[in-house]
Structure formats: C-alpha cells, structure tokens
Amino acid sequence: MSVPVVSVTMPCRDCADTVGRALDSVLGQSLREFEVVAVDDGSTDQTAAILTDYARRDARVRVVRAEHGGVAMAANRAMVLARGRYIARMDADDEMLPDRLAAQAALLDERPDIGLAGCRIRFGGSRKRCAGYARYVDWTNTLLDHDAISLNRFVEFPVPNPSIMCRRALVERHGPYRDGDFPEDYELLLRWLEAGVRMAKVDAELMVWNDPPTRLSRTHPRYRVDAFYRVKAKYLAHWLARHNPRHPEVHILGSGRTTRKRADMLLDHGVQFAAYYDVDPRKIGNVVGGIEVRDRDTVPPPGEAFCLPYVASRGAREDIAEFLHSRGYVLGRDFVPVA
Length: 339
Description:
Layout: E1 6-12, H1 19-27, E2 34-41, H2 47-57, E3 61-66, H3 71-81, E4 86-89, E5 95-96, H4 100-110, E6 116-123, H5 131-140, H6 146-151, E7 165-167, H7 168-174, H8 184-194, E8 199-209, H9 216-219, H10 225-243, E9 249-253, H11 257-263, E10 272-278, E11 287-288, E12 291-295, E13 307-309, H12 316-326
Helix pairs in contact: 8-10
C-alpha cells in the first residue's frame, strides 16, 4: 500500500467483545487512504485472533503482538510504526462515525497552524447511570477553538484522547505518551499545549465514546482523581510562572476542604496563596493554614491580583466567572479556571 494519509493507532488489551465493532467503524470511513496499527498489549482473551482475522481480510490493518506493558507503551509502539502524515488515536471500545478521518484530516490540511485536531463526540453510555461522564462530554463539546481548549485545560481534559488526530512530526518533536503514576493522555496534552502546539476541533460529532465499566479511566490507579490533580498542578504552576504578572502569588476563589486539598498541590511548586475567598458567611474570617478566608466581594481589582477559581461543583465555576467578569477581570489575563 502507498503511504497512507492517516495512521490509526489502536492499543488493544482483552477487548474481544468490542474490537470488531471498533475496526468495522474504521474500515467504513469515507477517507480510504489510511492504515490501522493495532498493538495487542498481551491480551489473554480472543483479541489477538480477532485482530489477525481482520488483518488477513484487509491489508490496511497491521497487527503487532507485544508483552503486556500498559496502554502508554502500546500506544507509543503504534505511533513509532505509523507511516501516515497524520496520526489518529482510536480505542478498541469506541466507534468512529463515517467521516471522522476525512473531516479531521481536512482541518489539518486547511489549517497549517493547527497541530492537533479533535472533534465533538457522542456519548455512548447511559446518561442516567453515568451522568458525570455525560456532563463531561457535553462540556468538551463546547470547546472548539484553540483559546477555549487552552484556557480550560486546567478544568478537565479538554480534548478526549480517542478523538485526537495530530501531525506525526509533533510526536517526533515533543515526544509521545509518558508512562508513570499519572494519566498519560492528559499529561501529553498539557505538555504539548505548554510547548505551543495549537489545537482545534471539527464542529461535528465524529465518534461515539463508549463508557464500559472496564474502561481504564475507571479501573487503573493512574486515572484516580488525585493523579489528575498532581499532573494538573505541575503544568498549572508552569503556566502561572509564564502568565501571572504577580507570580508566585495567587488568590484562590473557594475555601472548602476539597478546594484546599487540590489547590495545596501548587504549594509544592512554589506558588503562594494571598487569600481564600468565599460566599459562605460561616467561613469568612476563618484562618486556614495561616491564610485568611475573605468575603468574595473584597477580591482586589483587576491588575492587583491573579485569581484561580478552584471549584468543581456544578454551576459554581460559571457563577464565579460571571462575578469576575462583572468586576472587570479578563479570562487568561486576570484569572484562569481550575476544577
């Protein structure tokens, strides 16, 4: 086969129940000049046999067998073997809609300034049983241009990993996934954004993101909440050093126990807290760890403070952003949201 436009990289591990549907969705793409590089990460079920059967029937499917080394290893091995100009990530329990590869490749063709393309995604789980995941999907679907993705990177993962397509040169320049006690996909996105990679999404649903109970983000320790916050704090501290004119001092909006526990991770990176701010009169005036809790209305005017709205409860982040905007604060200049 001639050099493909897109290499679809798919790490696989004990996914016999879903990998066939995933591959069928790839092979049904409207863009035909692609390859699939499927790395079997030491599966113990029928995954390897299913992959081998697909490779026998379609030469665009390439299968690599590997000893179990984890998802980062398998994904990186697939990228090393990829020959396409663009690399698309695919998980073995998700499904592409027919125009995904064509639409994302077209965005990268038309926008040389964009290095990584995502898309809007369709939630494939139960919105009743998995309401948190569904809300997360809805939120990511509102972040379409580079500024929205960049300025919301410390709230949550703004471009779901299975929806990503990037230029192969970026992997060579900025490095692939890193293995460690942290979510490797979120770390890569934060690292690439820090390096100046511009990102955008196709404004269309191009894939179905399923939410099975065996999804790694539900079962593996590297995807626990505290692991997300550790890697988030590291890159947020880097960002503040570059963008906060009053660095290392920040003002924390929110003073609950959860907020303090997560914000405190910044202290290990040399960030200093001037004050906490709250709307609960029972908390105002308290001193926590030597830091005063103040009435939110006393937040300094823009230019005299850099604020981190460190809240995760539904609606609270939007309320604080509206409050800061009413005081003349500008997103990215005077504050950046965290959750």
